[in-house]
Amino acid sequence: MYPKIAVTHNKTIAVLGGTGFVGQHLVHALVESGYQVRVLTRRRERHRELLVLPRVTLIETDITCLSSLHQHLAGCHAVVNLVAVLNEKRKGDFQRLHVELPRMIIDACVANKIDRIIHMSALNAYAGKAPSRYLTSKGEGEDTIHMGADEGINVTSLRPSVIFGPGDQLFNRFAGLLKFVICLPLACPNARFAPVYVHDVVDVIVKSLNNRATFGQRYDLCGPRIYTLQQLVEFTIKTLGIKRSVVPLGDGMSKLMARILSIAPGKPLTYDNYLSMQVDSVSNKPFPELFGITPQPLEAIVPRYLLNQTQRGQFDRFRLYAGRDD
Ligand SMILES: NC(=O)c1ccc[n+]([C@@H]2O[C@H](COP(=O)([O-])OP(=O)(O)OC[C@H]3O[C@@H](n4cnc5c(N)ncnc54)[C@H](OP(=O)(O)O)[C@@H]3O)[C@@H](O)[C@H]2O)c1
């Protein structure tokens, strides 16, 4: 079912956060490109689907423990860091995962003589001057990981807008919500995004690995079109072919809703998320040309996985990747 692998080489890429949305797509792409892949995870048994892939090792460990990280990065040629949380489950998660982990990754790379790191940041992540704690901590982490250059490590960081694709937390989440309501009150309806396709993001990671021109660079990654949050929800409704109405909330009500939902189970929206949406998740820079990628618009892609999911109750998240029919 997977395309033939052109070259199988003995380079091992460690993926931190390899079980997440972007991570799972990346692991497939790395395998397809012939790499050995080592995924470090907190819960190995939850991600057995990755074990069926050739050349993938799944290791259960605590990556926030420096000695474990040292141990499990041994023998790897590069590290891709995708670990992040949008909301803190435990107090201090942003600091621990976004700021301290990048420092530990550098130390573990130095100890293991690994000289290549690709780090996933986010658009609008700026240390000290971003509107939310999520974005500020992501900015600090991005600056921290680039300090690896002082230790001889070649670092590339990626700054995507919101990412869409099979398994995403954007369209899938709205589709899930819209099943249960006929009228959706929407906080921050005018927040703007340039959604970028997960396969384009993953292609950038794979193409960066051995490309010296990307060393030391920070790339904004945006899709070709800009949408408000309300337009994205309305697109979801249209795609699902259902009748729902969206009630755009003003700023005061958006804040109130964020405060209320941040104490609801699963924290569907937090005040920090509200703050993140106070800056447009768009970039004035074009998609970086050196990758030779034309970023895909969402219109052709989202219906393929949203409809698959709703019609069959589940979807094969990687069928599209395997077929590379984008
Ligand atoms: N998705 C987007 O729209 C988007 C947009 C901009 C930037 N990004 C960035 O892209 C990266 C990947 O995003 P994603 O959407 O793929 O994230 P995700 O699906 O939430 O996956 C995050 C990963 O982080 C790991 N993780 C979470 N909490 C952890 C903890 N307490 N200790 C150790 N590991 C933990 C998880 O690994 P285990 O559970 O296996 O341990 C998981 O695989 C992140 O850096 C994110 O900030 C994403």
What is the secondary structure topology, with strand pairs?
Elements lengths: L11 E5 L4 H12 L3 E6 L6 H4 L4 E5 L5 H8 L4 E4 L11 H19 L4 E5 L12 H14 L7 E7 L2 E2 L6 H8 L4 E4 L5 E2 L2 E2 H11 L9 E4 L5 E2 H12 L4 E4 L2 H11 L9 H6 L25 H11 L6 H5 L3
Parallel strand pairs: 1-2, 1-4, 2-3, 4-5, 5-6, 6-11, 7-10, 8-13
Antiparallel strand pairs: 9-12
Helix pairs in contact: 1-7, 3-4, 4-5, 6-8
The chain binds NADP nicotinamide-adenine-dinucleotide phosphate (NAP).
Question: Can you offer a commentary on this structure?
Answer:
There is one protein chain. This protein is of the alpha/beta class and 326 residues long. It has one domain (12-227, 276-323): Rossmann fold, CATH 3.40.50.720. It has helices spanning 21-32, 48-51, 66-73, 93-111, 133-146, 171-178, 198-208, 229-240, 251-261, 271-276, 302-312, 319-323, and strands spanning 12-16, 36-41, 56-60, 78-81, 116-120, 154-160, 163-164, 183-186, 192-193, 196-197, 218-221, 227-228, 245-248. α4 links the parallel β4 and β5. The longest helix has 19 residues, at 93-111. The protein starts with 11 loop residues before the first strand and ends with a helix. The structure holds NADP nicotinamide-adenine-dinucleotide phosphate. NADP nicotinamide-adenine-dinucleotide phosphate (NAP) is lined by residues 17, 19-23, 41-42, 63-64, 82-85, 97, 120, 122, 160, 162-163, 169.
